[in-house]
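Hi all, posting the design record for the shared folder.

TITLE: backbone redesign
STEP: 1 of 1
STRUCTURE INPUT:
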C-alpha cells in the first residue's frame, strides 16, 4: 500500500506518481487529503501537506484526483485525511462524492472509533469501507472498538509517534501484530516508519499488508518533470515489491 499526497507538488504530478506506484506494483493506493494540522504526520508529510495547501488543493480536488486515478486503473483507492475538512465538506456529501469518484475506503486518524457512528453510517450507505488505526499503546478496549467499527482493514501503527522513515522497526512488532490479528477477521496492515525492501519483507511475514508513505513522498517531491517524478516513484515502489517476493 503506497501513499501519495494529492496536490503535491501539483495535482497533475500527484496523479502521475500514484499511477507510478501502480506501475511499480502497489496493490492499494492511499491518497492523502492535505490539512493544516496533520497530527499523525512527521516532517516529510507535514511539508507535503503545506505544499499541497499552498497550491490550493481542496477536498474536492482530492476527490477529483481519486476519480482520475480510478479511470486509469482498478487498484483500490483509500483516502487518508483528517476529520475537520470532511465535516466542513459535509459528511453525507463527502461519502456520496467518494462513491461517485470510485473511492474504496477512508482513513481518518483523528476520529476515535467510539465516536465514529455518524461517519460509519454515511460510509456504509455509500459502499465506502472504514479503516481505523491502532498503535502499540492501544488498550484492549480500543482494539475491540476499532475492530467493531472498521469494515476495510485495521491500520496498525508500527511505532509510537508520527510518520516518517526509520532505520529500524521495534523488535516487539511481530508480537503486536499477532495480538491485533487474534480473533480479528479483518486484514491487518502495518505502516509508519517503513521505507526499505528489508523492512517490507520482515513485516510481510506477519501482517497482511505494508504501507510505505514518507519515502515515496520524498521522492515525488524531488526536482524534475512530472514524468521524471512518476518514473522515480515507480522504480522505488518496484524495489519494495521485490521485498515481498512478488
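Okay, here is what came back for every position:
SEQUENCE:
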Amino acid at each position: 500500500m503506497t501513499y501519495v499526497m494529492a496536490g503535491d507538488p501539483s495535482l497533475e504530478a500527484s496523479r502521475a506518481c500514484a499511477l507510478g506506484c501502480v506501475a511499480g506494483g502497489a496493490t492499494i493506493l492511499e491518497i492523502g487529503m492535505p490539512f493544516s494540522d496533520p497530527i499523525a504526520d512527521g516532517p516529510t508529510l507535514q511539508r507535503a501537506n503545506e505544499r499541497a495547501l499552498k497550491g490550493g488543493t481542496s477536498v474536492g480536488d482530492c476527490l477529483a484526483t481519486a476519480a482520475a486515478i480510478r479511470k486509469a486503473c482498478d487498484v483500490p483507492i483509500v483516502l487518508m485525511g483528517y476529520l475537520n475538512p470532511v465535516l466542513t465538506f459535509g459528511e453525507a456529501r463527502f461519502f456520496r462524492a467518494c462513491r461517485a469518484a470510485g473511492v474504496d475506503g477512508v482513513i481518518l486518524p483523528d476520529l476515535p472509533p467510539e465516536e465514529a457512528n455518524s461517519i460509519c453510517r454515511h460510509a456504509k450507505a455509500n459502499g465506502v469501507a472504514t479503516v481505523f488505526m491502532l498503535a502499540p499503546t492501544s488498550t484492549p478496549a480500543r482494539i475491540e472498538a476499532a475492530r467493531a467499527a472498521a469494515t476495510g482493514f485495521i491500520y496498525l501503527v508500527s511505532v509510537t509517534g508520527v510518520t516518517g522513515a526509520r532505520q529500524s522497526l521495534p523488535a516487539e512488532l511481530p508480537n503486536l501484530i499477532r495480538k491485533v490479528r487474534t480473533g480479528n477477521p479483518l486484514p491487518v496492515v502495518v505502516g509508519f516508519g517503513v521505507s526499505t525492501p528489508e523492512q517490507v519483507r520482515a513485516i510481510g511475514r506477519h501482517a497482511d499488508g505494508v504501507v510505505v508513505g514518507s519515502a515515496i513522498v520524498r521522492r515525488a517531491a524531488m526536482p524534475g518533470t512530472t514524468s521524471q517524478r512518476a518514473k522515480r516513484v515507480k522504480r522505488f515502489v518496484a524495489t519494495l515489491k521485490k521485498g515481498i517476493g512478488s
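COMMENT: The radius of gyration is 17 Å.
Let me know if anyone wants the other runs.
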